[in-house]
Every structure is written in structure tokens, then in C-alpha cells.
Amino acid sequence: MARLSYLKALQRALIDEMSRDESVFVLGEDIRVGVNNVTTGLLAKFGPQRVLDTPLSEQGFTSFATGAALAGMRPVIEFQIPSLLFLVFEQIANQAHKFSLMTGGQARVPVTYFVPGSGSKTGWAGQHSDHPYGLFAHVGVKTVVPATPADAYGLFVSAIREDDPVVIFAPAGSLGVRDDVDLETLSAVPLGVGTIHRPGSDVTVVAVGHHVQTALAVADQLEGEISVEVWDPRSLYPFDWSGLAESVNRTGRLVVIDDSNRHCGIAGEILATAAEQMRLTAPPRRVTRPSGAVLPFALALDLACQPDAEQLVTAVREVAKD
Amino acid sequence: MEASLYRMVRLIRRFEERCVELVRSGDIIGGIHPYIGQEAIAAGVCAALRFDDIITSTHRGHGHVLAKGADPIRMLAELCGKVTGLNRGRGGSMHAADFSKGIFGANGIVGAGGAIATGAAWAFLRQGGGDKVAVSFFGDGAVSQGVLLEAMNLAALWKVPVLFVCENNGYATTLTVSESVAGTICGRASAFGIPSSTVDGMDAAVVFEAASAAVESARRGEGPAFLECLTYRFDAHHTWEHKARVRYRPAEEEVSGRLRDPVEIAGGRLDPAERESIDEAIEALLDEAVAFATTSPAPDPSTALDYLYGSAVLP
User: Fold this and answer.
1) Is the C-alpha dihedral spanning A88, A272, A151, A242 positive or negative?
2) Across residues B237-242, what is the average pLDDT?
3) Residue B189, in any domain of the structure
4) Residue A302 clears pLDDT 70, i.e. is over it
5) A211 catalytic per annotation
6) Where residue B315 falls among pLDDT bands split at 50, 70, 90?
7) Nearest-CA distance B152 → chain A (Å)
8) What's one Pfam family here (chain B) (predicted)?
9) ipTM of this model?
10) Which pLDDT value is given to residue A124?
11) Which chain B residue is nearest to residue A158, measuring alpha carbons?
12) Which phi and psi (to 5°) does residue A280 adopt?
């Protein structure tokens, strides 16, 4: 067993895939130095042709990657901040994602878009703190949000090997997570397969990204009062609906905790599908950012917009009582 | 070369005229952006390319797709939304592609192809062992798109073998170049240190010569080049205008703009008998294409989302 951090797991995945497959290369802003600590050391290992520092031209280099992918490469793009994905929504959702269908299956666009430090880092204010995974899931771009070091490794590897565009969000709140991991057992985690982090029998809590840790803490806190199952979808698109149904059909109760805006968010989709297809014995709840929120700067205001353990405890108690 | 240039210019012209008829008859839904008047550019540039080079095209893309070697029969079937089409009826006019011929697709977003072509050409360099180039076609409207300018910067920085071809037909839909372009079109290339030239886009031989020089310099490793081709769109921005009857070009300009016709310029260099035999072969080919397109089966609705992903996805 070794102590593996989430950040090191991401780095290990990238190094392993670049070593395994010559067509994998990484590009982005300040990645040679590695300001996000994921690509640190890659330049020395793989050289400047496989570790490209780009000018501040997000739209240009995102479609550049599409072209390279169409020509047989497997680009990995690091985006320094999550809001840069708004700049390149056209290049991902309207170009890279649509080539396969529009060309009748002629084209493959195996690009991985990677955001180390998505969501709030606290104090980075309105334009650096978003968590836009729901946008990509909505348009059908494969979207994953690993919560543990082993899943960070496994989902990053799978994303790079996919023949389609995949966005991988590594929440800022997860980057510091460390687990005891047998390095020999690290392996690809398939997209579209959720996992139970902690079994329980009264309430299923679906936790996205760093809120897996929140949900585990809440499950501990409520032990003896309410038995909480912590279920992590890992992929938001494709989504493991049958895995969720297996849990919800056992517990009959559902709470979702999701660090993105409420209106049209992924939590709403999970609740709607559960209501349509699963055996709920009580109305489900969701704990999210407020509808249409813009994260304000001051600490108290930033935290006021983020879902937290206290809100989750309240929601779990409410559904357990219904 | 004169005969093959004429053949392509004429093929594109007649293909587009047949398409306009098929739009009127309802066989092509959604309309098209006719390439009529601009044929010499696609024909001249693609004549300078090899089979293994690649292109990205535009919403007005039929000419590029045909000139790079797509089968006109399957191309027309695509425009008619048939399973026998290049894209199995999934792309239509604005997304026609044939990757087996290096045609990385027409594109519905103005200026979008430049960065895609640059990335593909960079990949060719990385993969080694050849001297393939990429060409990105776009119109004068695209020179105001940020993503295209970003791509030109990347191409120049990394000495990517890509040729940027601007078809300046004077109008971005209805907006004139003088109302939309500050400075000059070639000035944008100069700003990135990309060599550029402006040529007569109505003469396929002139375009061929200029494109050949640019393509050869890219093959030699001298990085990107930029070609501005002056042209005039004879028909509407989109066939929708045939009904909407919007007016934005002076009547006298519409007459004078058509005086120099790429078909006549290229055809005037041929022996009339040779020209006639080329024309007849094209008519026969297009008759066959129309018959094939109109009688081919439509896709099965149950397959609407086939090809959405390259690798399997759960529902």
C-alpha cells in the first residue's frame, strides 16, 4: 500500500498513457512549468513536441486539438480554470462532439479536456469558480468527475483511451484527497459505471465529485440514526442509471448533493429520472448551489452559495422522516 | 492542366445549378449556399494538392468537396439526405465530408475550419515521414473571427504546413468587406509573419499557380501561407434569398460582377470540340447523380442517433 494523492494519481495516469501511446500529447497554458502540479516534469520526460505550452488562445488550441485528433492523435488539453470551458463551448459541443454523427461515423475525435481545480477554490470569485459539468452532460459530451485518487487515475486513463471527446473535471475540493492505494491495482475505470463508497439501507445519497467526502462525513455523523448509502456516479454522461436504480430501489429514499447551480442542473436530472423510473417511498431532495448563482468573493458569501454538510444532514433527515 | 481545370470549374457550376433546381423541387431540404461564381478557387487550389493532403471547408463548401475528389454522385445523395450519401444522410450541405479523400468537412460555423486544419497539419509533422499539407478555405467574413486569427498565430509560431485560402467575394452574407474589415485581409497574415498574396480568383489557372507555390513552400517546411482570392458570388448567399428577395447588392454591380465568369475564362482556353465533350460527360454524370440521389432510400428513423459516438455509451 502507498499513500496516493489525487493530484499524483492524475499525473501518474497522464504519464502512463503518454508512455503507452505515442499519439497522446498534452497541451495547454503553463503546462511545461506545471502551475496546476499535474504536468510537472512531463517536459523533461517527453520533450516539447508532446508537452505544448500554448498561447492564450483557448478557442484556437481547442479546435487545433480537434484537427490533430482527426489526423490520428490523442490530445489532452489542460484548462487552467473551469470558466475557460465557456470560451470553448462552441469548439467542444458544436465541433468536436458533432463530427462523429455529422459525418455518418467517418470521423473520430479522441480529445480529453481536463480541468484540474474545478468549482470554488475559495476566494477566486465570480469568473474562476464555476462547475459547468452539467452543460457538457446536457449536450451529450462524455463527462466525468472523479472523487478519489483511484478514480482520478482510472477515469483519466479511460478518458484518454475513449474515441470520443471527454471532459474530466477534477474538483478543487478533491485535489487534496489522499488514500492508501495498492499502486499495482490502479487501472482504467469504465465510463458510465457508478460506485458505492459506503453501503447503507435507509437513504441513498448521490454525491458528485468532492461532495463524496461531504457525504461520507455526513454518513458517519448520522450513524445509529439513519443508515446512509453513499453512491457516486463518477460519470455524469453516460450515467449509470441501472446502478443508481439498484441502490434507490433498496433504500426508497434519495438525496443528491451537487456543487452546481440548481436550475437545469444535473441534480434535477437525477431526481427526475428517479421519479420516473425508480421506486421512491418519499419525495427526493437535492442540495445544490442556488439557481443561477454567481459565486461572490467574500468568504461568507462564497460559502453561502456552496452546498455543505449541514444542508445535507437536514435533507437526509427530511427524506428519512417522510 | 487546362482541360482538367475547366472540367472541375464546369462540374462545380453545373452541380450547383442542379442543386438549386433540387432545392426548388423540394428534393434538397434546408437549402444550400451556392458556390456559383467562385468555382475557380476550389478548382485551382485543389489541383495543387495531392490525394493525401487534407482540406477544411465552409458552409459554401460543395466546390471544395468536389474539387478535392469526392464522388459527385454520393455528394448529391448526401445533399438529398439519403443513406447512400457521403455522410449517410447525417450531414447535408453544410457538413459534407469524405475523410477517405482528406476532406475534413464543410462546416456550419464561419472560420471554424482554420484551427482544425492547423491541428491536422501539425499532426502530420509530428507523425513524420511525409510532407502532407492542409488547406483551410474560408470567406471574407471569417477574417473577423477570433478563432481563425488564433489559428494563424499558432500555425506561424509552430511552422505548420497549412495554407489559408480566403475567398473574398465582397460580402459576409449582406455586409460588405469595407463595412466589416478594418485594415486589409492580407494585413492579418502579415501581422503573424505569414507570407500572403492576393490573386484573381476568377481564373483557375492563376489560382492554381499561386496555390502551387504556397503549397510547395509549406511542403519544404517554410510554414503557413495565406492566399486571398478575389471573386464574386453570382447567386444568393443562401437559396433562402430566392424567396425572401432581400436586396443588398447594387444592380449594376450584380451585372458587372458576372462579366468575368470562371467557366468562360477556363473554357475559352480549350478547343471548342474538347470543351463540348467535357460538357457532355458532365451532363451525363449529373443526370446519373440526380437519378441516384432522388431514388436512393431515406434513412430509417430508428437510426436517428446512430454514429453519435465513436465508442459505445450507455443510455
Assistant:
1) negative
2) 94
3) yes
4) yes
5) no
6) very low
7) 9
8) E1_dh
9) 0.96
10) 93
11) B311
12) -95, 135
- Say yes or no for a CB contact (<8 Å) between B90 and A66: no
In a domain, B66, yes or no: yes
C-alpha closest to that of A71 among A20, A109, A112, A18: A109
What cell does A248 get?
434507490
Phi, psi of A285 (to 5 degrees): -130, 160
Identify whether B34 is preceded by a cis peptide bond (ω within 30 of 0): no
pLDDT of residue B313 exceeding 70, the answer is: no
The B residues from 33 to 92 touching A (CB cutoff 8 Å) are 54, 56, 85-91
| Contact call for B310 and A109, based on CB within 8 A | yes
**Domain A195-321 sits in CATH 3.40.50.920:** yes
Shortest alpha-carbon distance between residue B75 and chain A (Å): 12
> A310: which residues sit within 8 A by CB, 6+ positions away?
none
Domain segments of chain A: what residues?
A: 2-185, 195-321
Q: Is residue B312 part of a domain?
A: no
Which range marks the domain in which residue B69 is found? 2-303
Q: What is the CATH number of domain A2-185?
A: 3.40.50.970
Query: Using CB atoms, which residue from B56, B126, B154 is nearest to A61?
Result: B154
Distance CA A84, CA B195 (A): 32
- Would you say residue B311 lies in a domain? no
**Secondary structure of A267-283 in HEC code, one letter for each residue:** HHHHHHHHHHHCCCCCC
Chain B residues whose beta carbon lies within 8 Å of the beta carbon of residue A164: 309-311, 313
The answer to whether B304 contacts chain A (CB < 8 Å) is no
Residue B78 sits in a domain of what CATH number?
3.40.50.970
Q: How far apart are CA A199 and CA A196, in angstroms?
A: 6
Tell me how many domains chain B contains: 1
Are A77 and A112 spatial neighbours (Cβ–Cβ below 8 Å)? yes
Marked catalytic residue, from A97, A128, A210, A211: A128
> Is residue B145 a contact partner of residue B110, using CB atoms and an 8 Å limit?
yes
Mean pLDDT of A109-137: 95
Dihedral angle, C-alpha B202, B226, B60, B97, nearest 10 °: 120
A2-185 shares its CATH topology with A195-321: yes
